[in-house]
Amino acid sequence: RWSPDGKTLAFASDRLEDGQKQVYLLPFDGGEAMALTDIKGVIPTPRGLNSLQWSADGRYLAFLKEEPQTLEEKFKAEQNDDAIEFEKNPKYVRLWVVEIVSKKIHCASPEGLQIWEFGWSPDGKHFVATASDAPYEWAWYRNRLVRFPSEGGTAQTLYQSRRQVAL
To answer: DSSP character for 72?
Structure first.
């Protein structure tokens, strides 16, 4: 995703550790990509073009990240216990924000809220997102439109329907 000034490309890659994607910045005028994050958990890509989004002023980058594996899940993976257990231990996907200069990172979305899609408000003070209370795939079809502060806080439901909502 290009920065608002067109000078930097943001992307997710697991170039340092297999399966552990981080957010990188690549200068348009050349040079090596620089890791912007060093986090545990899964950055679910591809999740459409909205997986990474710059704030309008280019000072922040928002992205979706799934909660990290539990110790039990890590142990099973190390033991090659690869039995498929679909949605047995679902993970919430939350919205995270990183400041470009300081690399300070915080979770903007409230706990217990599955974020499916999101967008910045023009002033950068809020997010609008499609969200559900459950992290299961079926919950995508019963989601709602919410708003919450970009610094973190309580979500306010803007629109709820019996049908799926999308951004």
So the answer is: H
**Contacts of 102 by beta carbon, 8 Å cutoff, 6+ apart:** none
Prediction pTM value:
0.86
Taking alpha carbons only, the member of 95, 91, 68 closest to residue 152 is 95
| Domain at 86, CATH number | 2.120.10.30
Rounded-to-integer distance, Cα 115 and Cα 156, Å: 13
- Chain segment 22-36, per-residue pLDDT in tens: 999 999 998 999 999
Q: Dihedral angle at the C-alpha atoms of 73, 79, 85, 88, nearest 10 degrees?
A: -20
**92, part of any domain:** yes
Q: Which domain holds residue 126?
A: 43-160
Domain membership flag for residue 17? no
For the chain, the residue count is 167
| Structure-block tokens of residue 49 | 């073009």
Q: Around Cβ 145, how many Cβ atoms within 10 Å? A: 18
Alpha-carbon 129 to chain mean position? 11
> Total domain count for the chain?
1
Share of the chain above pLDDT 70, in %: 87
